[in-house]
Amino acid sequence: MTGLEFSGLTVRYGHGASAHTAVDGFDLTVRPGTSHGLVGESGSGKSTVAAAAVGLVIPSAGGIRLNGADIVGRSSAARRARRRVQLVFQDPYSALDPRMPIGLSIAEGSRATGRSWSRSEQRSRVGELLERVHIDPDRANDLPSAFSGGQRQRITIARALAAEPEVLIADEITSALDVSVQGVVLNLLRELQRELELTVLFISHNLAVVNYMCDTVSVMQAGRVVEAGPTATVLAAPEDAYTRELLASVPVMGRRMTWDEE
Ligand SMILES: Nc1ncnc2c1ncn2[C@@H]1O[C@H](COP(=O)(O)OP(=O)(O)OP(=O)(O)O)[C@@H](O)[C@H]1O
Question: Do residues 107 and 227 both lie within one domain?
Fold first, then answer.
């Protein structure tokens, strides 16, 4: 099986009487080079799925595979395979070390490739990545505070790309940003996905954004998938009552949105 595959993923937080099942038998396959949306109300388990895929939480049961290879185990092969999956978080303000020039943060990302980089190789790679996210490479020595929220999010994307991922998980990457710059970041992600043929798991509670970004979508409720399919089909004719409820609570679905403003 190729692509990113979750099977029966179950994640519990806490122990004993306080144990809580956040993800409960979650099944999903994201085909290579496609963009899959994961939607659902707050607390439905979306971020926990993302955290499990990059090893930030250990599943209680089930598995996650990339092109058939286990990425949750402790073996060095699993760790190596896991590095092919990179996560970009919601908040670009806390994601970057405020004392570290952005070029250095990006260079750190390239360590996940497992190769040793000479200083000059690293410098040119950082410049190339900054250009990819449309930031002037001459600003590699600036601190994060010199950049806007939207620019910082582009820098965190560059850092994730430095790891040469096959899969990029974008967890609410625009929800901490001003509406006026959200479109720029979304368009960048679309462009990168196509150019680099990335497999993208795009987590959002905004169905209009998912409609714009994703080929296919899964709807999560209480830790499991209640509906999945091509985005256009699921959003146009939801079969599940919960999906219909989610759609009804997003008035923005009815109007056309533009994404080209900065
Ligand atoms: N570190 C944690 N410890 C204990 N419980 C947690 C932890 N992280 C998440 N949870 C709980 O697990 C459940 C799923 O949370 P999760 O953040 O995965 O949902 P989500 O769908 O991403 O929500 P949101 O859209 O608000 O980010 C929630 O009930 C949450 O309170």
Answer: no
